[in-house]
Amino acid sequence: MTIPTRNNEGFLEDAWAWSPDVAREIAADDNIELTDNHWEIIEFLRKFYKQHEISPPSNRLFVKAVREAFDEEKGNSIYLMQLFPGTPAKTACRIAGLPRPTNCL
């Protein structure tokens, strides 16, 4: 499988070139094996992007959006860091094929 063009941070140049197979390949680069819990957040992010045409702009807003969409259990930074190590918003958006969140380091 050929991964669509990515920038120097691993984000897709074209968010619409994404597919579940592309997500698996990008996740594998980070040694992440995608589970149902990952897919739930990835699908949420894809819907968020389609609706707002931006990625959640920061980790704090990412956590808040997940909390509002799901619940306290999933909408907290520890849960999201376990799924998407490093900076959860940045890692999750990269795997979901979305642009880099604007305020993430």
From TrEMBL:
Catalytic class of the enzyme: transferase
Entry superkingdom: Bacteria
Name this polypeptide is given: Sulfurtransferase
Function according to Swiss-Prot or TrEMBL: Part of a sulfur-relay system.
NCBIfam families xrefs: dsrC_tusE_dsvC
GO MF term set: sulfur carrier activity; transferase activity
Protein family according to the UniProt entry: Belongs to the dsrC/tusE family.
Active site residues of this protein: 104 (cysteine persulfide intermediate)
